[in-house]
Amino acid sequence: MKNLHLEKFGLAGSLFALMCCLGFGPLIAIVSAVGAGFIINDAILAPLLFFFLLLGAVGLVITRRRHRRWSPLAVHLASATAVVIFTFVLYVPAMIWIGVLGLLAAIFLDFMLGERAVRPGP
Question: How many CA atoms lie within 13 A of 58 on its CB side?
Fold first, then answer.
């Protein structure tokens, strides 16, 4: 099966939605300048963030076939839970960014495990 890179699209979309939720000034200026200012609304960003976090998880489930390890998905799910809770329930910016680092770590771990599974050993 061809790799669709869903986990990478999920990460990119999640970062976009999260940075809009957190009010990252340069991104909000760009979004407003291109005429998409309606996106900067939590009623739109929350479902968008959930969708992209789910897309990343689906991508990690698909790439699991290559390396047969659940650890990238577990890191992603824990980080996604932290991002959602600390963004919409208890607003703690430091914990949100720790969750974002966890999402990046999950993608990196998936990549490293996939490379090790494809590369023949000595």
Answer: 11
